[in-house]
Design a protein that fits this description.
The protein has 116 residues and is mainly alpha-helical. Helix content is 58%, strand content 9%.
Amino acid sequence: MIGLDMWADYRSQIISILGNLVVTTGSGEEMAVDSGFAQWVTKTTGMPPGHSLHLIGNGASASMASHFCADITKNCGIRANVFTDAALITALGNDNSRKRQLSETTTALKTPLPWH
């Protein structure tokens, strides 16, 4: 049956992808996946009120970042932003520089909300 074969192939691909998952530190050093996830949980659940998490993706990764942003906002109550707004990204690139477009946006958005 074609449907079952496609499902088995899809399942095998997901298992392979997760089996090859690599987590790195901010300096690019590899670390154990479980340790990386534990650090992420500690850092995000310990975020001060009014702060938010910023996610960035390129191409298909942008839609994955957007989906993840929705999941952690809805399921974890973590305030998050994702850079998928084409107008914002291109305007910052045009007005400033491609090298600074994301850093300037995160600087502007990292200020806590005044009511927290």
